[in-house]
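User: I need a structural model of Ferrous iron transport protein B from Infirmifilum uzonense for a docking pre-check later this week. Nothing fancy, just the predicted structure tokens so I can convert them on my end. Input:
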Amino acid sequence: MGWIAVTIRVALIGNPNVGKSLIFNNLTGGRVHVGNWPGKTVEKKEGRCRHRGEDIQIVDLPGVYSLTAQTIDEMIARDYIVKEKPDVVVDIVDASNLERNLYLTLQLLELEANVVVALNKYDLAKSLGFQIDVEGLSKMLGVRVIPTIATTKEGMQELLDAILEASKQRRRGSTLRYNERVEKIISRMEQLIQEDKLLAEAYPTRWLAIKVLESDEEVLKEIEKSSQKERILALKESLQKELGGDASVVLAEARYEFISGVLGKTVRGAKPLTVTDLLDKALLDKYAGIPVFLSSMWLLFRFTFDVSAPLTSLIEMFFGWLGTLASASIPNEQLAGFVVNGLLGGVGAVLTFIPPIFFLFFGLSLLEDSGYLARAAFVMDRIMYRLGLHGKSFIPLLLGFGCNVPAVMATRIIESDEDRIITILVNPLMSCSARLPVYILISSAVLGSYAAIGVYSMYLLGIALALIMALLFRRTILKGKPSPFILELPHYARPTLRNTALHMWERGSLFLKKAGTIITLTMIVVWFLSSYPWGSHLEESYVGMLGRTLEPLFRPLGFDWRAVVALFFGFLAKEVVVGTFGLLLGAEATGLPEALRSQGIFTPLTGFAFMAFTLIYMPCVATIAAIYRETNSLKWTLFAIVYSMILAYVVAFAIIIVGHLLGFA
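Assistant: Understood. Predicted structure tokens for Ferrous iron transport protein B:
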């Protein structure tokens, strides 16, 4: 009889910006599966590794500050630990900020999870002058504590050893104890809960007692099913009065009191003035902060545009060569037309924009890993709050520069429904990477030396419109004030090339997958509609009929029927706009920008208006689906579609009118 291999299940958890993703990548070595949590649109990352002959499955839980279950992220993390009961929970803490990070550690210990603490950024803590008694910290917490430096992979083998050791030593209840007054009250509630055998078998009773006292909504739902429901709720009211004040605040103070006692015995050294402190004096200044942020974004897009240009030209030449080869070697006229115009002219035109998209993600990853993007959120909060947006909205909006789909999903970090819906509604106004090829194509064709400024202006226009629409929504359909924004700023760090490249690939590969599926299928449809009835002139084809029918609606904006067709199919995926132009104009050696210029489809003014319309009009199908899933409302989904179409037309028309008044053609 053969042995069945037992997989050790490990959950990684920690505050945002503690290096959790880097440790996950270090442990799994890139062997990662990405999906969604059951019933949620939240991304789930799983990986595997082998260590000393043992198979280890690692689940990367969302970054959270606590397990209070007020946000979807917190709910997912807590539910996984409570219900799935992983063999080991690795809590990654920032060694340079232990007071804040150990709060989550205590909540994990309350849950009686089998915890191993990864004391990450250990080198940073030492450089700040902290001397940490790791062994003493381990004894006081009652768990293994392993110093790690994720950027250099130091401590990874020791962490894996600790995981194996912990997996063989299951915890027996929590040894964590707070001050005497709080402990007496927790004990009285726990004794009553233990009388319900079903509750006692399903959950740690001490943890239940704490959560009942904190009036945790999810736990109180479980209490509603208890045979001791009335007695538990009556005792809850009584004990909360004995605690005095808000029970959740009293328990939070007890946790910080415990942490203070632990750190007083295990950590020495005062924090000196650091480079981070000096940089923040400039970057977080209320006058200099916003200009620095805008300058950083300008440099990012200048970098994206200039560095990628030679690679784009090489890819364009490659597809031109393939087109010439296909035309000469495929005898069947229809098949040759499909390959040259449908695939190489359509999909090929889109793929020429791989370099700028990947360089954009590379630049964003550098800013994120360095710690600057968190500062940008802090700086922008001052404006966003006045205009009706929650400070946390900045994070999903910033993610929108990459892709609006995960950006809409990221709004789950916002507690208030009103704040969340406003953020979802304005998120599609942020220029995702799918729109970048359209901007580059049009600006290269008609804006000449001002092409980079034209691209950058679209990002600024998107930000401005998002803020204006948020203010309008806040004062009309979703009245109220946004909640205050509390953000912990990480220390500045030197990004690693490996991690930055990995982030670039994770985000950029989504574009390649889209090119291989949605874009290719759409281009096949567009090719068919532009080729049939077979032998007819392009304007007499099905796609020509469609464009001519809709053209009068867009004539005030200066768009001809080909531009209208590109926009029509662009609702599936914005990259399709470029592919459609490539197909309609044919594959030419001079390239697509030259084809647009030579055929006079756009003037500088109408081209700029077209870019703005592409920015604003209907979100792509995937984003629409994400909006529906996140709001669970057909009303808000339809509203997002309708208002964006109206806004796109109004803004594009305003550009044309103002442009004519200023003397632009």
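Before docking, keep this in mind: The longest strand covers residues 43-51.
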